[in-house]
Amino acid sequence: MKLFLILLTVISGLILFNEESYLISIALLIFIIIVLFKKFKSNKRLMIALLSIFVFTLLISLIKLESFQNNGYFSGLVIEKKNSYVILFDGIEKIYYKCSDSKIDLFDIIKVKGEISELSFKKPLESSFDFKSYLNYSGVNRQIVSNEYTTLLNLPINIVEIKCNILDTFNNEKCRELVSCFILNSKDYESELILHLKNLGLINLLSLSGLYISGIHYLFFKILNKKLSKPKAYLVSLFILLPLIFLNINRMSILRVFINQIITLIALFKGAKMDRLSIRSFSYLLILLFDRYMIFNQSIIISLIIGYPMYFSGLLLYKKKKVTKKIVSSLIFIVLIIPFNIYYNYSFNILNLLVFIALTPTLKFVVIGLYSIIFFPKIGVIETIFSYYYDFLILIDFKTLNINLNCFNQIEYLIYYLIVFSSLYFFEVNYKKIGRRFSLSLIAIVLFRCIPMNSFYYYEVYFINVGQGDSTLIRVNGENILIDTGGNLYNDLAINSLIPFFRKNKIYQIDRVYITHYDNDHYYALDSLKKNFIVKNIYDYNNFKSSLNYNFKIYNYNDIYLNYVDENMKSLILGFQLKNMSFLIMGDAPKEVEMEVLSKHPNLTADILKVGHHGSKTSTDERFIKAIKPKEAIISCGENNIYHHPNEEVIKILETNNVKIRRTDIEGTISYKIFK
């Protein structure tokens, strides 16, 4: 129990820690001390130890260590290897090194010649993965840029190569993908299965929890324990899993489980009594001693926040019937996991979470099966059976029951989990009335946050950061209108940017989509959006007139170039008014079209101008700017794009005419909120 309390104090100092939130961590520590004080008030040494560890870990977290290797070389151990980069560690500092050489493998020691500098990455697109933050939370703050490295120590066994060879033995593509996902942790985030599970908010739970790995070990142990003594059965079952652990040695969820099993095994052979809580706590402490930044690892956070309350809920339900235990523990699990679903997916879905819970027992057997067949010649029938399971996973889809909302801020996370822990505590000490009140307050908080409050008070316009492309969202009179979707051949913008953005703004459907023209960077994400989200109506330059029957009017000022082959010439130019603010969205219309629009609409003006063609010099004629007199100009473009948008000539025209310039590559998504 002491180990648990010490660990809990460490977590209170680190799990919510960053430069802005250390006060929240202190508040959490104070709460823990108050709750536990009654029971441990006689043990002042323990309380002092808890406080000392908290202060120590808080101070340690402020320290950023830098290596002494700054002479143009960096030698280090490869502690992380991906397709396009490696992380090197020299015992003091971790360094990012961009390299796609498959010859480099985990635990090789290499020497890189190059300049060490601060991390430099493009601004992440709207709602997409922030790689720089991921590296920072992993303790990586600098990079080395080089095309030259020397291998100082090359392990004879190449894990990356072994994984590739295993996958090559499978003929069935679906079975191969299951093995890649569940056994080898080599996920293709553009594959149908991964995109589907990600869209349902289940991918992180499946990949990070490690629940089914623990279940597999326990299953083997129970079978072997019928013939062998407890320590021997535990040892043999662990030995069976060694290849799986070896293939995923850098996967924290499996490494954590492995350390748990090793500690348990030592305790069994020594005859020592260690409960599950102490073993779990001790393994976390070992991990944190090895790498303090592991406290920010997603697997660690999920298992901490869920694992400990689930353990205590088991004690709470000790005398309950089996069915009651299952139902109540499942509900507690769902309550604990909801903030993670919101964090990863900007939504939660009770049915999807229930399906995850129901699938956990089947996953154990599926993983055992997949794990077994990698050692034997492949049989087509067996691969086909697993492909049916793949199809079953794809069929799971209750997204119409999603509850969308933005992720909690630091204070809200703190309040949420304090209420959850308080509820469990009061139920355990049999203060059920107080426990119910806490539970009801928790439900009320979540439901209140689900209400789209902004839409009651504002009209909203968002120029979404989709990189080198265009996408604009309008929220007015209960309607959600999207102008263009953006598009990228290598990135599913619908799943990775647009849908998460809609969810965190509590949007459940798009009522109208307008495609200004059919260049990839304006429409390519449309198909994925239709497949994975509710889209009611789609309009383009061919059927625009049929959209004019809505109460909220959007006007097209370019209706004379439909017979042209050039898409830019046909591009819709869309204008609309929100109270006293007017907007004009130019698509990719060139200067010729701009001047033709002026000749037909000489009195046209706009407060906010969405600049044509991402700031290319083919658009934004100075005469056009002088005529419409915009106050602000929005340029939607990708950071350091190959087209060098926006053009300096366009910038000069806007500046000369006193137009405020706003750019998505600099600001990210740009929003306007207009009081109703």
Q: How confident overall, as mean pLDDT? A: 82
- In terms of DSSP E residues, the strand content is 15-25%
For the largest sheet, list the strands in their spatial order.
Answer: 12-11-10-9-8-19
Radius of gyration: 28 Å
Helix/sheet category: alpha/beta
The residue fraction in helices comes out at 40-55%
Q: Which term fits the overall shape?
A: globular
Biggest beta sheet attributes: 6 strands, mixed
Q: Count of helical segments? A: 27
N-end to C-end Cα span? 56 Å
Low-pLDDT residue intervals, each spanning 5 or more residues: 15-27
Total beta strands? 19
Helix and strand topology:
Blueprint: H1 2-14, H2 22-40, H3 44-62, E1 73-81, E2 85-89, E3 94-98, E4 109-118, H4 131-137, E5 140-153, H5 159-168, H6 173-182, H7 192-199, H8 203-208, H9 211-224, H10 230-247, H11 252-270, H12 276-290, H13 298-316, H14 322-345, E6 347-348, H15 350-373, H16 380-395, E7 403-404, H17 410-428, H18 432-450, H19 454-457, E8 458-463, E9 472-476, E10 479-483, H20 493-504, E11 510-514, H21 520-523, H22 526-532, E12 535-539, E13 555-556, H23 567-570, E14 574-578, E15 581-585, H24 591-600, E16 608-610, H25 622-628, E17 632-635, H26 648-656, E18 660-663, H27 664-667, E19 670-675
Parallel strand pairs: 3-5, 10-11, 11-12, 15-16, 16-17, 17-18
Antiparallel strand pairs: 1-2, 1-4, 2-3, 4-5, 6-7, 8-9, 8-19, 9-10, 13-14, 14-15
